[in-house]
Amino acid sequence: MTSILHTTRRTQGNGAYRAADIGRQVAVYGWVQAYRHHGGVVFVDVRDRTGFVQIRCESDRAAVHALALSLRPEWVVAATGKVISRGANVNPKIPTGEVEVEVDGLEVLSEAQTPPFEIKDGVHANDDLRLQYRYLDLRRPELNRNFAARSQVTQLTRKYFIDNGFLELETPILTKSTPEGARDYLVPSRIHPGQFYALPQSPQQFKQLFMMAGMDRYMQICRCFRDEDLRADRQPEFTQLDLELSFATREELYELMEGYVAFVWKQFLGVEVPLPLRRMTYAEAMDNYGCDKPDLRFGLPLTDLTETLRGQTEFRPFVAALEAGGLVKALAIADGAAFSRKDLDVTFPQEAAAHGAKGVAWARIAAAGEWSGPVAKSLSPELRAALQDRLGAAEGALVLFVADKPAVANAALARLRLVVGERLNLLDKNRWAFLWVTDFPMFEYDEAEGRWAAMHHPFTSPRPDHLERLERDPGAVLAQAYDLVLNGTELGGGSIRIHQSDVQAKVFRLLGLSDDQIRAKFGFFVDALQYGTPPHGGIAFGLDRMMMLLVGADSLRDVIAFPKTARATCLMSEAPCTVEPKQLAELHIAAAN
RNA sequence: GGAGUGGUAGUUCAGUCGGUUAGAACGCUGGCCUGUCAAGCCAGAGGCCGCGGGUUCAAGUCCCGUCCGCUCCGCCA
Fold first, then answer.
1. In this predicted structure, which of A20-29, A82-91, A298-307, A348-357 has the lowest mean pLDDT?
2. Domain span holding position A176
3. Distance (Å, rounded) from C-alpha A141 to C-alpha A49?
4. Quick check: A490 CB within 7 A of strand B?
5. What secondary structure, in 3-state letters, does A46-96 show?
């Protein structure tokens, strides 16, 4: 018997069947989603990635009917037949519910073991099981859709940038290890004993070299690798939309990227993103939200009460923090009643403690001047009035205070702000709060190493008006660096680069690199800078994170086809793994234990 | 490196103060069933309670260790 596969091509995706198809002779291919036996008639839902359609196998076709009775979930089948109306039995709950296929030919293309979990939306197995059987998890409509969406968005991305004059160029995967930044994944060289390639953390230097090479506008959708610990929004390998352009200022780059997100949001979601996007300096973000990627889907800004409180209260934690040069900041929540004593005593302190805070002081405002809570008795009526005024807090409000070193107070309150926002249901997945955070500091002091470190990377250009501060006061130099933030997630970051070799040399020196080190690590790059470098800048954009937000996923794992676990393993393939001693010998390396 | 949390049937979970034979739902197997579509009805099979040690007359339950998943801190230019 000749297989249906060889005689009749698949007519269309199974999810596409509609009333307009009635009367067509068709071929349906796919997986058995479900079957319902009624003795004389068997209904089977046949699924592919476009959806599913019901086929009907009647007992008057004995062979078809007998075979239909034997079908089991996830078997792969082919069926031919005629599309007919379901008449009075239309199912309005499914897109293909008006029709069914009356089967005249049925074939099992592949049988399946009972899967370890049901292939259905809403049926969630544990993460480890899902990862072990990733190919089955991906078969679930929900995940299947995520990857169709991802394909669509990468196509939109290419179209937008190519239409804007960009060249799609490739950069090496086997490249050179660089100091600073994330830990590199290393690849031993067989040909050069004792030497190693590194996988790229990003194609940073190569894309700048493209600018020096006159490529003008470069884009790439590229894989990047960082050997650091994972998070829900961090995988060891991830996909970056990488861009660089010459002869452009920050403004031009903002415009370009704003056009890009507006294009993707419009084409993919049908959502208009109002332009220009909001902007905020790093300093403003830290002051008002305690972090450099504030979620602006809701308000709840932080208020700095340091000067209001200084010398005005004996409350020990406040006094101690102020004496140590710290600050007191607070979060005023209008709907204080939404939070219980348990939140105040357990949840909030725990969250704050994770960021190093020793505690969270709180006060409830029953009416003007009528405060309760552990801090209240240490605050005079005048001080209460001043605080209420500064906080804009009315009756019914709850105020959370954290007094600590600036970094700790900010981090703890930024976290509390998110916890509160989540509890008040302010994190609407259908709201899109884009934000440029600009003017990052060039350097931050690394206490452990006792030296300055680049906050972004060492090729970032200082603001031109801050050049003279480079040697005098490195901590005060602001960079021409920017992050694009969406709903509290850092989508991308970039900068205008240094294109003058003398400035680049100064920055390297400031970072504590000797001439020898500069030569060894960046020699080719420093040389290249001296052969006519156009002013240029760019951005790297996390495509996985953008997809996560676009499809409403909670984890990067739902938009990366074959992701790693929190311990950077692949539960399906069992990578990483040991290798044959022979392989190690060829690479001139030995395992340490 | 650290903190939290989870691991019980194929799956998702429940399992009281440590107590007799470890349950439910879904799934699976068999049967019935001609309009189901989360099909229904009947019957059945299915357990190393993550692993190792300890306490106890007795451990899924308590203690210690360990492995694995997840979340977070550190880390991530």
1. A348-357
2. 143-280+434-560
3. 7
4. no
5. EEECCEEEEEEEECCCHHHHHHHHHCCCCCEEEEEEEEEECHHHCCCCCCC
A240 with A193, same domain: the answer is: yes
CATH of the domain at A366: 3.30.1360.30
Amino acid identity, position A193: P
Give the span between the Cα atoms of A431 and A337, in whole angstroms.
Answer: 25
Q: Are residues A510 and A556 in the same domain?
A: yes
Give A215's pLDDT tier (boundaries 50, 70, 90).
very high
- pLDDT-based confidence at residue A1 (cuts at 50, 70, 90): low
B23 C1' to A117 CA distance, Å: 21
- Mean pLDDT score, A55-60: 94
Q: Are residues A373 and A467 in the same domain?
A: no
CA distance A69 to A42: 7
Chain B: positions less than 7 Å from a protein CB are 1-2, 10-13, 26-29, 32-40, 68-77
* Residue A266 CA, distance from chain mean position: 20
The number of distinct structural domains making up chain A is: 3
Q: How many residues does chain A have?
A: 593
Q: Are residues A367 and A485 in the same domain?
A: no
Same domain for A506 and A550: yes
pTM, two decimal places: 0.94
C-beta within 7 A of nucleic chain B, residues 384-413 of A: 411
Q: Which nucleotide is nearest to A87 (CA to C1')?
A: B35
Interface confidence, given as ipTM, is 0.93
3-class DSSP state of A538: strand
Q: Is the separation of the CB atoms in A360 and A414 below 8 Å?
A: no
**Gap from A392 CA to B2 C1', Å:** 39
Helix/strand number for chain A, H first, E second: 19, 22
pLDDT of residue A123: 64
CA A32/CA A55 separation, integer angstroms: 10
Average pLDDT over residues A406-428: 93
